[in-house]
Structure formats: C-alpha cells, structure tokens
Specification:
350 residues, Rossmann fold, Tyrosyl-Transfer RNA Synthetase, three-stranded parallel sheet, 5 strands, 54% helix, binds tryptophan
C-alpha cells in the first residue's frame, strides 16, 4: 500500500524557528515523506491572527514565510516529490473556512484552551480571526481531505474540533452528499492526529520546566535554526544544569528537568535513546557531556543553518518553490471546493 494516505501539516511564519520546532515538527515531516503523500503549508493566514506587534508587519511576514520554507527545504523536505506552499495563495482555505464557520458552534470554540491563553485577560480585544483560528485549521486539513496530521500535543484539541466539523458537515449535508455519489455519506474524512511524542518536546535552556519558545526574552534560552556553530556552542555551555553528574539510569533524570532536557536533545539529534546517552555519559562530568552535545548539535544544525542562509539569500528561488507548490495544491483544493459547493447548493459556473 504505497502513498495512499495524505499528510497535511502547517507551521506559522512568526519568526525565530528553533530547535523545538525542528525536533518537534520538522524532523517528523521529513520522515513522513517516505510513507505518505505530504503537504506542508506555511500558514501565513494564521500568522496574522494576533496584532502586527506580534507578527512583525508585512516585511517580516514575507521574510518569515521564506525562512520557514527555507528551513523545510534545508532540513530535507523535497518540494518536488511533495507539496510545500503558503496558505494565502489558495483561496479555498478562506472559502472553506466560511462554510465551516456555519457548521462549527460557538460553544465548541468557547472551549478552545489556546484561544483563552492567547487572548489573555482582554478577550474583548482579541481579533475575530484569533477566535476562528481552529476553524481555519480545520479548513486547511479538510480542503486536501488529509487523513493524517502530525502536530504537537498543544494542537490536539484543534484537531478534535476538525473531526467534529467534518462529522457535522457529513451529517448536516448527508442527503446531498449521498446524492452526489458518496454512497456511505462519508465526504470529509476524520483526520487522525500523529502526536509527536514528549521525547521531542524541547525545553528552554534556562528553565527545564518551560517549553523552548521564540517568545522567551533571553535568546540564550533557545537554539535558533539560523545560529552558527559558535553561537550554538556558547548557548549550550551556558545552559542551566544542576551540580550533580549525569545519572546512569533514566529514573535519575525524573527530578532534574534541565539534565533531562539536554539528554533528550542529544538522544533526538543522535538518533539514540536517552538510556543509550546515559550509558555513555552517566557518572561523568557534566562538562564532558556538554562538549559532546555541542558536537552533535553543530554536526546536525550547522549545515541546515548554512543551507537556510543560502536559500534566504535567493528569495526568487524560494518564491518559485511556493508558487509551484501552490499550483499543485490548487489542483486538489479546487476539486474539493467544486464538490463542496455542489453539496452545499451554491451555484457555480460549469
Ligand atoms: N495551529 C498549528 C500550530 O500552531 C499550525 C497549523 C495551522 C496546522 N493549520 C494547520 C497544523 C493544519 C496542522 C494542520 O502549530
């Protein structure tokens, strides 16, 4: 059974891609290319749901869109075999969102925890787009009738909402769907989350209990995908640790979030288990382990940073990748929109 399942995932172009984005999402995207038809989308429409003070304004948005695209390519995503594009090039995302807005219930959106976090105390002042963000995400996925969606733990609730929207659409339009040749009434599939495990949850280098994040004030808290070898080395040497040597069993990491995080990063980058790492470095000086960690980080990330730099310097090429991807994505999206409009009862040119 080769290449029948379709994977869709999105990354927001909000700047400062870091090791957490790489190990938590991109590495997984690269792997899935071997077993699935993949569509990877730079979700620039999601990026503008908070004010320009958050996403940086038009020039930054364009720059960040190219940077995420460059990171995809530099990490090994093949935009010829699979599809890489930016969301705003395909009108279907917005069109299907409108139809889904009329399917999703206010009560469903009111339960979304990410909206509550992002809107904070001043909810009256959040954009309507931020509230509607999960509906746009459902449209992203279902526009391509994707069956598998690699996402982090924090997006699980949004994916459940996508499943609810697909199911309610299939119910509400059941007769019309069957009338249009879907005998089983299953028009939109139920997308399955592929949750990237806690092993790839990368924490801040300054506080092992907080996720590595682009919004943490200190740049030393994260390794950016564009950091050069010296910067990576410096940040790892400065990374917070405790005075104990590394344990020789995983159990010994349980109450030591910073040590656990660094061991996890090493394991993920080297493609081994944490236990393997402890077998090699347990009982030894932390500084020895850090030196080895600098080595794997630089070996894996420096070539990606160099390739990203080369690509970002050639925006014409990056844009041509996005246009080519959009042209191929549009083939699928237009087909979904034609059928969906027919099912809903919208008149269109034939
Ligand atoms: N909300 C996702 C995030 O911030 C990004 C995203 C947008 C997405 N549309 C998607 C992920 C569709 C998976 C599928 O991580």
């Amino acid at each position: 059974m080769a290449f029948v399942e379709r994977v869709f995932s999105g990354v927001q172009p909000t700047g400062n891609l870091h090791l957490g984005n790489y190990l938590g999402a991109i590495v997984n995207f690269v792997k899935m290319q071997q077993t699935h038809n993949c569509i990877y989308c730079v979700v620039d429409m999601h990026a503008i749901t908070q004010g320009p003070e958050v996403w940086g304004g038009p020039a930054e948005l364009a720059r960040n869109t190219r940077e995420v695209t460059a990171a995809f390519i530099a990490s090994g995503i093949d935009p010829k075999k699979h599809i890489v594009f930016n969301q705003s090039q395909i009108a279907g995302h917005a069109e299907l969102t409108w139809i889904f807005n009329c399917i999703a219930r206010i009560g469903w959106l009111n339960r979304m925890t990410q909206f509550k976090e992002k809107a904070g105390k001043d909810r009256e002042n959040a954009s309507v787009g931020l509230y509607d963000y999960p509906v746009l995400m459902a449209a992203d996925i279902l526009l391509y009738r994707a069956t598998h969606v690699p996402v982090g733990e924090d997006q699980k609730q949004h994916l459940e909402l996508s499943r609810d929207i697909a199911q309610k659409f299939n119910n509400d339009f059941g007769d019309s769907i069957r009338g249009h040749g879907f005998a089983d009434g299953l028009y939109f599939p139920q997308p399955e989350p592929l949750i990237t495990g806690p092993a790839t949850r990368v924490m801040s280098l300054r506080d092992g209990t907080k996720k590595m994040s682009k919004s943490e004030a200190s740049d030393n808290s994260r390794i950016n995908l564009t950091d050069d070898a010296d910067t990576i080395a410096q940040k790892i040497r400065k990374a917070k640790t405790d005075p104990e040597p590394l344990p020789s069993e995983e159990k010994g990491l349980e109450t030591r979030p910073e040590a656990d995080n660094l061991v996890g990063i090493y394991a993920a980058l080297a493609g081994v288990t944490k236990q393997d790492v402890l077998k090699e470095f347990g009982g030894g000086q932390f500084s020895n382990f850090k030196n080895a960690l600098v080595e794997v980080c630089v070996a894996k990330l420096a070539p990606i940073a160099a390739e990203m730099k080369r690509l970002v310097a050639d925006p014409g090429y990056v844009d041509s990748v996005l246009v080519d991807g959009a042209n191929r994505a549009r083939g699928i999206a237009d087909e979904t929109m034609r059928m969906t409009k027919d099912i809903v009862g919208f008149i269109r040119q034939r």
